[in-house]
Amino acid sequence: MLQRIWTISNLLSVIRVVLLAPLAYVLFSEIPNRQAWMAAIIVLAALTDFFDGYVARRLHQVTDLGKIIDPLADKITAGGAAILFMIVGSLPLWYLVVVVLRDLLLLIGGAYIKARKNIVTQSNWPGKFTIFFIAVVMVLTALENPSLEGLRQFMIWFSVVLMGVSFAIYVRRLFVGQVSEKRSVG
């Protein structure tokens, strides 16, 4: 059992969350090249997100626990980074609310499906793209480069649209699944 819990892919998901600590340290410090360090930490976290899924499939380590840990790590990391940047005034509160509210609703929906149908839902591709673009927003925010502000603003709005699309797909999957389940029973 322990072997199926501590897989390389699950460890990568845990590392993604742990990277919030060095991000917070660098964000609140005055170390040289602070912006580059923050961007590098965010890129490293994004790479763990890519590689955890790749490694799980490649090494045949896809588990129900991994299906929970990976998106949970995404949500904690994205929300945690957004909170940190909002605290220092680099991200607007409304963006933090959108990120956290979407993720909270997805967690509640996932828990509902698990409780009702004993199914662990997987991330969808629009959700993965959304996390990628939230990471892009975080990197651009970390860089604090005025010449990139237009791109950052575009990416903020683009990621909000993607959050809406991925959420709508998730909700559709939830309710279409319920409807087809009801039809098969009757």
Quick one: biggest sheet?
none
Alpha plus pi helix count: 8
Overall form: globular
* Range of strand content: under 5%
Low-confidence parts: 179-186
Instruction: Tell me the helix content.
Output: over 70%
Estimate nothing, just give the exact number of structural domains.
Answer: 1
What structural class is derived from the secondary structure elements?
mainly alpha
CATH superfamily: CDP-alcohol phosphotransferase transmembrane (TM) domain
The termini sit apart by 38 Å
Write the CATH fold name.
Four Helix Bundle (Hemerythrin (Met), subunit A)
Q: Order of SSEs, N→C?
A: HHHHHHHH
Judging by the overall fold, what is the CATH architecture?
Up-down Bundle
User: What is the C-level CATH assignment?
Assistant: Mainly Alpha
